[in-house]
Specification:
The chain is globular, with a radius of gyration of 13 Å. It is mainly β and 123 residues long. Strands 2, 4, 5, 6, 9, 10 and 11 form a seven-stranded mixed β-sheet that branches. It has a four-stranded antiparallel β-sheet with strand order 1-3-8-7, with no helix packed on it.
Length: 123
């Protein structure tokens, strides 16, 4: 069974940084495409960043986070990361990691999802 577990997000002031992680188990992690999504209250889930399978040489970012967020993967540790810098109040949301053998890029159509973790950015 594929499982994605996200330890706690956190709270930070605007301009600060946080790093999210997503631990995967139950499948050959390196063969899966993965991504990060977020959902703010009253809004639809949106794609934040996506990374290709294998070495993760191809990445995509939403325009709203380009230059501030960095997605990466450590296949040896079966872990996906999202480094978030220069955080803004509008980045406040529940963040989810996702995985699939089909690369949906930033579309929320991935088969497997983490439980979500809250990120709060105060002004």
């Amino acid at each position: 069974e594929v499982q994605l577990v996200e330890p706690g997000g956190g709270s930070v002031q605007a301009g600060g940084s946080l790093r999210l992680s997503c631990a995967a188990s139950g499948y050959s992690y390196s063969s899966y495409y993965t991504g990060w999504f977020r959902q703010a209250p009253g809004k639809e889930r949106e794609g934040v960043a996506a990374i290709s399978s294998g070495g993760g040489s191809i990445v995509y970012y939403a325009d709203s986070v380009k230059g501030r967020f960095t997605i990466s993967r450590d296949n040896a540790e079966n872990t996906l990361y999202l480094q978030m810098n220069s955080l803004k109040p509008e980045d406040t949301a529940v963040y989810y990691c996702a995985a699939d053998q089909v690369w949906w890029l930033l579309r929320p159509s991935y088969r497997y999802w983490g439980q979500g973790t809250q990120v709060t950015v105060s002004s």
